[in-house]
Amino acid sequence: MFDDSPISLNIWKYFNDKYGQLLTPVGLLRCCSVVSAKLEYPRLNLFIVAPTRQFKSQMTYEMKHIFPTNFWVWLGSDFTIHSVQEKFGSKGLNNKCMLINDATLLFSSKQTRTKDRLINAIAELASDGTYIYGERDQKSSFTLKADVSIIMNMTTESYLSNEKKLMTSTFLERFMTIFYQMPEVEFQRVAEEYKNKKDMKINKKITLGAVKKINNLYDVKYHKNITEYAKLFSVYEMKSYASGLDHVYSLIRSHCYLNGRDYMCDDDIKLLKITLDYLNNTTAPNRSKIIMFHNQGRSQLDICLLLGKNPKKYQPYVSKILSLAKIRGIIDDIRVK
After folding, report:
1. H-type alpha helices, 23-100
2. How many whole angstroms separate alpha carbon 18 and alpha carbon 89?
3. Are 180 and 23 in contact (CB under 8 A)?
4. pLDDT at residue 143 greater than cutoff 70
5. Spatial CA neighbour of 305 closest among 315, 297, 296, 295
6. What are the residues whose beta carbons fall under 8 Å from the beta carbon of 265, sequence distance 6 or more?
7. Is 68 exposed, middle or buried (0-12, 13-18, 19+ CB in 10 A)?
8. Which homologous superfamily is 6-193+208-276 in?
């Protein structure tokens, strides 16, 4: 599977044995996100979206077993930015992955003002590494300054309710959003077996002297691959090309760091390809197809027919998706004919 990435191979085998094929790539992506906290921006932040009873919480707990405590902080499912400041502060957060178990509970338990403040704080930490809170009462002001990566879980139902708010606030721009849904038969099989499996710990020390080289990682040999996948990530995630490029680079660099490499190899491109399958929004599976058909020069009528839809009923949706894609800088124009 991975010829030059021994730790990734061990992680892959572990999650495959414990959770099955569908969740194995998600487990590896989580591990990449954890170690990316040690790197410079852009870091790999993951927003994991799946229905209830899909092992989201269990896989977050796995990160606590796999990595030593200097790689992560556990935030659980109910906290405020004030409590994070009081418990950890900048020093306690810096260069660590923030493990947020259940964003559904986190957001539903907050008043609007508190939730908005929390969303903004997480977004600013993810992008700028700094969040400044200030009120008229200067005693309550504080600054969180920390380079972090973030992993958050959310149910599909909650995602549908919060997507517009999270996207318009640019919160989701900072995250690679992963979607999956296990078939019931597969869930039952894993549920019966996974507790009997031993937890994994990475024995090899995950430190690398040439971190600076990884931060500036670039290999002309893979330039075409990077460009192509950045475009695909942009389409699948419904985000700008710049965001797609950030996500590609953050994934490559964190995968190199995880495996103790300061150079790119074919394994990194394999991981990009695998990740694509998890970027397609399961709540709107045709969105990426609509944009791809548009980029091929297809008319909106053709797109409806290619997707097996009634043009009279479906064309307004196609037009809506293309308009959204234009607003987000994914396409340059919208063709009707």
Report:
1. 24-36, 56-66, 81-87, 89-93
2. 35
3. yes
4. yes
5. 315
6. 3, 4, 5
7. exposed
8. P-loop containing nucleotide triphosphate hydrolases (3.40.50.300)
Structure confidence by residue, pLDDT tens digits, 23-61? 999 999 999 999 999 999 999 999 999 999 899 999 999
- pLDDT, residue 207, reads 58
Q: Give residue 60's identity as a one-letter amino acid code.
A: T
Greatest alpha-carbon span in the chain: 62
Q: Where are the alpha helices (DSSP H) in 145-298?
A: 156-168, 184-193, 211-215, 223-237, 241-258, 266-276, 287-295
Compute the CA torsion angle 118, 122, 128, 134 (nearest 10 deg): 20
State the DSSP code for 54: S
CA–CA separation, 52 and 50 (whole Å): 7
Distance CA 317, CA 285 (A): 13
Torsions phi, psi for 48 (to 5 deg): -95, 120
Q: Where are the domains of the chain?
A: 6-193+208-276, 287-327
Express each pLDDT in 310-324 by its tens digit: 999 999 999 999 999
Q: Which residues pair with 131 in a beta bridge?
A: 144
**Does residue 15 contact residue 27 with C-beta atoms inside 8 Å?**
yes
Retrieve residue 331's tokens: 């396409």
| 3-class state of residue 15 by DSSP | helix
Question: Residue 126 is encoded by which pair of tokens?
Answer: 């993810």
pLDDT, tens digit, for every residue of 244-271? Answer: 999 999 999 999 999 989 999 999 999 9
C-alpha–C-alpha distance, residues 333 and 314, integer Å: 19
Query: 156 φ, ψ to 5°?
Result: -60, -40
What b/e readout covers 248-282, taking b as 16+ CB neighbours within 10 angstroms?
A: bbbbbbbbbbbbebbebbebbbbbbeebeebbbbe
